[in-house]
Give the backbone structure.
Amino acid sequence: MYIYLIFFVLCTCANASRMKLIAGHVIFRHGDRTPLASYPSNLIKEENWPNGYGQLTSIGIEQQYRLGQYLRTRYGSILSSTFDPREIFVRSTDFDRTLMSAESNLHGLYHQRNISNNRMSVQPISMHTERAANDFLLGQNDCPIVNRITNEAYQSETFKQLNEFYQPFFEKLQMWTNASNITLYNTQHIPDSVLVAHIHNKAPAWATEDVRKTLAEINNIIFYFSFVNDTVKRIRGGPVIQDIWSNMNRSVHHDTFYKLRMYSAHDTTVSAALAFLHIHYPFQPQYASALFIDLYKQNQTYYVKVEYLNVTDSNKPQPYLLEGCPKVECPLDIFTTIYQPRFPGKAEVECENKPSSSSRSAKAMVVFLSSIVVGLFLITLVTTMFRKRQASVQYIPVLTRDSADKAI
Ligand SMILES: *[C@@H]1O[C@H](CO)[C@@H](O)[C@H](O)[C@H]1NC(C)=O
Ligand SMILES: *[C@@H]1O[C@H](CO)[C@@H](O)[C@H](O)[C@H]1NC(C)=O
Ligand SMILES: *[C@@H]1O[C@H](CO)[C@@H](O)[C@H](O)[C@H]1NC(C)=O
Ligand SMILES: *[C@@H]1O[C@H](CO)[C@@H](O)[C@H](O)[C@H]1NC(C)=O
Ligand SMILES: *[C@@H]1O[C@H](CO)[C@@H](O)[C@H](O)[C@H]1NC(C)=O
Ligand SMILES: *[C@@H]1O[C@H](CO)[C@@H](O)[C@H](O)[C@H]1NC(C)=O
Ligand SMILES: CC(=O)N[C@H]1CO[C@H](CO)[C@@H](O)[C@@H]1O
């Protein structure tokens, strides 16, 4: 009896002070697409892919449709069942695959239509974009300083050592692909071409499981090195997080805000946003993977919760405990204190191509930091060799002599 009473009281209190969802923000990668490029020995040419290179496939359309259905279950408590442009704002990069991904996703999110007295079977939904050259928000504009820092990272000892490590594999890869001079610096499109071909049952015979695993490792290394520098994190990941923060700030100040802001973008956008938040995610984001940054309210206090749906179609996002936050539901004030100082300035200022003022000290810094990273890398390598390939998420992608050898 008493237990029931206590239980009842607890429940009532819990209800009264429930975490209430206020606003959702989602950054996702487009769905399954055709390859972006090829290699000399490839028998599958661009014309063998529906609509050519870099286009959303029917698999990708369906992945996004299902992600939209998941968004309905996730945000159904704050979004009307039919489209209302005052509630949702959709922003996409200016690519066919991301625009079409957003459309497919919205078909899953708004299954109920209500237009022209139901005489039309389509519900148009507005979305916004920006041509790539001006798209600072989702990281598409050309930014010379980012290229310069990336090139500096490529000069680091760690990167050189990794390049050495994969030389025997690259020699094989040159033979298979008929491409010349393959290095970690220029190989990006081969892992992609092979992965996409494999998904569509068109992979060449040499692309065994071990070869694909090694290619994936290489891809992950390139992703890792692309977003390791704080300046790059700020420039490539900062704008979208700042945009999200502004919407949360408007809500807190009782200004007009969107219940859901959706950003349809790329693996690089998702990686950069994760890196900006100091989440060390050492993999290439999968198709239709989605990063959620949601605003909650409880007892007049606002909280930010960050979750990443890291596997296509999994519907099981992983919550993150952010550095400096006491718990997964991070009080907005703390979130603001941590991230506001890292927000970028205007694109023109951030991306300005200034010559490096202190390139010597910058170089010394790179050498110093690389030696730390080399140390970490070697420790990781040795540990994994002893552990015999136990799956684990490390700060740096786990490499083993084992996997490099088998691929050869
Ligand atoms: C590789 O390139 C050479 C020289 O260009 C050419 O003769 C050969 O047929 C190519 N092999 C394949 C498998 O594409
Ligand atoms: C091979 O690639 C590296 C890095 O991309 C470049 O520095 C080098 O000049 C290239 N060598 C040849 C023979 O093309
Ligand atoms: C990031 O790059 C900038 C510009 O080259 C450099 O000054 C800075 O030291 C780098 N930061 C790190 C952590 O390597
Ligand atoms: C937060 O939102 C309020 C109300 O819209 C606005 O006046 C204020 O400038 C915003 N703060 C920042 C730092 O943008
Ligand atoms: C919320 O407020 C209620 C009533 O003021 C209080 O009993 C409860 O402990 C508060 N909950 C939290 C999590 O602060
Ligand atoms: C996805 O996240 C889970 C939980 O953090 C992790 O165990 C898994 O390795 C991740 N998968 C991929 C493909 O990133
Ligand atoms: C689901 C929904 O909102 N249906 C409405 C569509 O429009 C007709 C006519 O305006 C309404 O009667 C429905 O309720």
Q: What stands out?
A: Residues 40-41, 178 surround 2-acetamido-2-deoxy-beta-D-glucopyranose (ligand 1) (CB under 6 Å).
